[in-house]
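Fill in residues.
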């Protein structure tokens, strides 16, 4: 039962474990890197035409608990191409993690 709640609120398990109360701004700052990582992975794993939908789906679930997710969702929602979404994410401080590993 925790799984669905954790998708809509990625900080839920952490708050339970640490006994923290919800703090939308603090938690959102912790979610930003997760969104960047998710966006990068979705673009690699899925066809380009499906990637925006997956991000919109996750933001749609999170927007109930995070007003920041609602604002981002409203900006991303009309976009159809990954190339249109990435600059929006960057404008919200969401950057994909560096993938500079040595092969």
């Amino acid at each position: 039962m925790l799984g669905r709640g954790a998708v809509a609120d990625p900080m839920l398990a952490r708050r339970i474990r640490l006994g923290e109360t919800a703090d939308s701004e603090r938690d959102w700052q912790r979610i930003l890197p997760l969104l960047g990582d998710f966006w990068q992975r979705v673009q690699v794993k899925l066809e380009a035409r499906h990637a925006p939908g997956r991000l919109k789906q996750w933001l749609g679930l999170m927007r109930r608990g995070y007003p920041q997710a609602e604002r981002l969702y409203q900006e991303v929602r009309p976009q159809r191409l990954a190339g249109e979404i990435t600059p929006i994410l960057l404008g919200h401080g969401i950057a994909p993690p560096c993938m500079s590993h040595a092969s």
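Residues 2-91 form one domain.
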